[in-house]
Specification:
205 residues; mainly alpha; 2 domains; 13 helices; elongated; DUF4046; DUF4046 domain-containing protein
Length: 205
């Protein structure tokens, strides 16, 4: 029964056994429930945290101390998680906690790339339809916040010359978009903003 998992986890914490049985999480029907029970016990009974505190306070060192690395393999990290991030363990334990929206998560990642906290975007971050949506969020932020543009019809003038377009994308850490998703800056902009797909807007540039 899933409830027995807490007893086994206690024995691991006390050093009476080293790890869970290799068959402990074999049954997919109960796997998630078991992992949640272990996480909640560690957070509420060992650390004496509320779920909200845990999300703010939990660190990789706590995961090691609490032996939670033994169950971490059963939780798929979100694409934006860095190797040292463990916040998603708390989210897994408490699905009712408020989450960042997809746009907020994308902007969090992009701002970390801009600031140098991340050296690059996560692998495959801009692949698939969801990846294209992430790309659009980043490009919107670049134009409206970083470049302080008010009107997208300013874009042909600024990005009409290929060399300057690449230079701007590189400066704002988005050159990866035309390296992996689009054939050119023109292709990127006219795909993201169909209203710019008018040759008259680009003819002078």
């Amino acid at each position: 029964m899933p409830s027995k998992i807490v007893d086994r986890y206690r024995r691991i914490l006390m050093g009476e056994q080293k790890r869970f049985s290799p068959y402990e999480f074999e049954d997919a029907q109960y796997r998630k429930q078991k992992v949640q029970l272990v996480l909640r016990y560690a957070i509420e009974n060992v650390k004496k945290w509320t779920p909200e505190q845990a999300r703010k306070e939990l660190r990789l060192s706590d995961v090691k101390e609490l032996k939670l690395h033994l169950i971490r393999e059963y939780i798929e990290p979100p694409i934006e998680a860095k190797p040292e991030d463990v916040y998603y363990l708390v989210d897994y334990a408490y699905p009712f906690l408020p989450r960042l929206s997809e746009e907020q998560r994308v902007l969090w990642v992009y701002k970390e790339v801009l600031s140098g906290i991340r050296r690059h975007f996560p692998p495959l971050y801009f692949q698939s339809v969801k990846g294209e949506e992430r790309a659009k969020v980043c490009v919107d932020y670049m134009f409206r916040e970083l470049m302080q543009l008010k009107d997208i019809y300013e874009l042909p003038k600024i990005f009409g010359k290929t060399e300057r377009a690449y230079s701007l994308l590189k400066k704002h850490k988005l050159k990866i978009l035309v390296d992996t998703l689009y054939f050119s800056p023109f292709d990127m902009l006219t795909d993201m903003y169909p209203e710019l797909n008018d040759p008259e807007l680009w003819k002078d540039y």
